[in-house]
Amino acid sequence: EVQLVESGGGLVKPGGSLTLSCAASGFTFSNAWMSWVRQAPGKGLEWVGRIESKTDGGTTEYAAPVKGRFAISRDDSQNTLYLQMNSLKTEDTAVYYCTTGILDYWGQGTLVTVSS
Amino acid sequence: QSVLTQPPSASGTPGQRVTISCSGSSSNIGSNYVYWFQQLPGTAPKLLIYRNNQRPSGVPDRFSGSKSGTSASLAISGLRSEDEADYYCAAWDDSPSVYWVFGGGTKLTVL
Asked: Residue B5 CB: number of other CB atoms within 10 A?
């Protein structure tokens, strides 16, 4: 059974940093392209970024609102996906989900609140 | 403002058939597959339809998807109370620096 478990969310001040983790199991993580998707309170879904598998190059891509501030990485030895978030803004407040390939599996999400 | 356009709400009575539309452009729906997600209150989204009209294992055949040109639709037949949820369409976009795009979501109410 595929499982994705996010952690690391919390309250952070504007301009601060936070790193989210996503522990994966039930599939061959090293072969998977992974994405982060977020959902602001009461709003719709927004793609944040993705990382290819290392065998496919390991390239990362980001949505315009987070480019240059967020970084996605992976540790295939630990089956873990990361989202490093810097220079956080109030508009980054959202539940952050990690997802597989074609967004076919989702974690339960972790809430990030950016507020002074 | 979402790249894909969905009606904000839809409704139906138990047993009815309901459709939800999703409109895009040539760079997303027009040239790539459409995906649909169901989000029950307080839970994570769940993949409902992939590659325009394919259902993952476990999704009832009451749910069906279709695509024509730059538009797509999700149909739910034999509506049930447990279908009350938010529904989102999504597609890959070929525009530079744009990848997955979503609709704004449609809140389905079962009357």
From this structure: 15
